[in-house]
Amino acid sequence: MGMLFDYIKEIAASKDYYPDENNNEKDLFVEEIKQTMKELKDAEIYFQNVTDPDLIDHAIYKLESVKRKYTYLLKKAKEEGINFNNFTSLLS
Question: Domain range holding 72?
Fold first, then answer.
């Protein structure tokens, strides 16, 4: 996840995002990114710990699927001008 973390920090450095009460749609989008980050962490842990040969392919598919979703959401966030002043706040 190190490369993804570095990529997100680059995006975060490009512009600040300050949610306000009138930005409900953007807030929901940020929440979707947070949820996807959690899914990505969970998929990586699952991949690292699976030992059954029948589940290894499943773990790889799951990890790649979530990575693609995450990359898509980050791309859309950048297109929408949603960036994050403090990336570490997303991890909480």
Answer: 2-91
Which own/partner contact pairs does 26-31 have at CB distance under 8 Å and 24+ positions apart?
26/80, 26/82, 29/73, 29/76, 29/77, 29/80, 29/82, 30/77, 30/82, 30/84, 30/90
pTM: 0.64
pLDDT tens digits, residue range 23-63? Answer: 677 788 888 998 999 999 999 999 999 999 889 999 999 99
Number of domains in the chain: 1
What is the chain's length?
92
d(CA 32, CA 13): 20
What are the strands, taking DSSP E only, across 1-75?
none
